[in-house]
UniProtKB/TrEMBL annotation:
InterPro entries: Rhomboid-like_sf, TMEM115/Pdh1/Rbl19
Stored SUPFAM superfamilies: Rhomboid-like (SSF144091)
One GO CC term on file: Golgi apparatus
Residues covered by region (Disordered): 277-298, 316-348
Subcellular location: Membrane
Protein name: Rhomboid-like protein
Membrane topology: Multi-pass membrane protein
Keywords: Membrane, Transmembrane, Transmembrane helix
PANTHER family xref list: PLACENTAL PROTEIN 6, TRANSMEMBRANE PROTEIN 115
Superkingdom of the organism of origin: Eukaryota
SMART domains documented for this protein: DUF1751 (SM01160)
Biased composition (Low complexity): 324-335
Species lineage: Eukaryota, Sar, Rhizaria, Cercozoa, Chlorarachniophyceae
Amino acid sequence: GMSVADPELQATLSTRVIKSPQGKIHIALASLLLLLCLLGVTTPSSAEYFALIPFNTAIGKFRVWNLLTSAYYDNSILMGGVNTAVVFIVGRMLERKWKLEFVKFMAAVNFATMLTIFIIMVACYATTADMKFLLSPVCGFSAANAAFGVALKQLAPNQNCVASFDKIKFKHLPAIVIACAVVCYGVGVTQFKDLLLVVFGTYYGWLYLRYLMLYPGNTIRGDSNEDFAFKTLWPGPLRPIGAMFGNITFGCCEMCGFCKVVDGPVVEELPRTAAPSTSIPIPEVPDTVSEAERKQSERRRALAVKAINERIEQLKRAQKAKAAEASKPADATSAVESSATKSKDATD
């Protein structure tokens, strides 16, 4: 699993480090969001071509590209402005850490969220025959931004959101973002589709990081750290519900073959000069994990122990071989000295 806190990301949060960001993807993305938001606000009819409208997307006009474009288009100046600002601030942190994986993460979360909302709206129409479910536009970058909050919770959970205020940390962001989305919808500031974007963005962001993300320097996808279980995204009273959804997700991913961390090798090859006891971490099995997660941890532990034992045997064989090679010159020298002594005795 990954470390509890990422020192590199925490350093990136310093203004001294991020004055000159290495990547430009987040700048291009923020510019695109701003331009498409201005288009949506000034030309409302553009929603017919960019927003997700189920009737237009797959029933009446087959504009299937809306599943891709809808996440980057917005017709609300408030949401468009907030999303653009978040991308510019948080995007550079994640881009600096993940490079192109940042783009894959964002695109996957946006597409999965829009596809899910499309299916829900079509199902609602099928059960109610209400055309509003087919004609209501859905758009906005809120799903990816909610997922960015999950990413910050994973990378630097104990980092303060505000430097001078240590009560709110990155590990609290997912719950705070969803709570704000619920409140904004409740008071009428946002629409129900905005709440759905945040909820599904949070879920798919966690799912991608947990099981599918290929982190720089790793060959195994996903993050099996217990500190990143789905239940940890929620406050204490809601954690049992979060654990239930996490277990369901784990079962589905394992059935679909996405859980590479379970069946594949999870122990990196030891450096030749490294000590076996410090090179391979043996995962512990906490008492509070589910049965499925417990079995996963036990399998990983067994693989780790096996790898350690194999490496110890390799080191022992290597040491014996070196000792044997070192003894050969000594034996040869002893033989020469013995022969010389015998010759001297014979001469005498």
